[in-house]
Sequence to fold (175 residues):
Amino acid sequence: MTPDSRAPPRRKWAVLFVCMGNICRSPTAEAVFRQLAPALAPDLEFEVDSAATHDYHLGAPPDARSQRAARQHGIDMSHLRARRLVAEDFERFDWIVVMDERNRSDALALSPVDSSARVVRLLDYAPDQPLRDVPDPFYGKADDFAQVVGLIDAGVRGLICALRAPPQPGRRVQQ
Fold:
């Protein structure tokens, strides 16, 4: 028996971040998660993606202002491309992490009745942060995009901590 064969199997989570257009908030969350997860949860494996509740920007890269704000934190997300949330995502992903309450409502409307995916708001994992919704910076200024990166960083850190906790039994879709 090799030493590796005695190690407990690594848990794997599939996490999908969702916002309205998949060019600002959700790709930022995907990129921040990809950067933080290896250091904060080396004992876990992840499949990570992002999607939109609407089809405004399908195939487009993240907004240049989002990319600029992320780069200021050492995060490159230029390779990401917008896609739409589909019903199959509720089978593929364990966690559907939305940026705001409207995204949550839109995502739940697509969720199959028997889905076991958890549909949660990102900032519910940042309890010290007074906002519950990550504001959409699309029509804002550079400072708004920088604020979004900070909010997402706090939420992602809390989410990763929650993912490291032992699994809880029971139905997982949050209504």
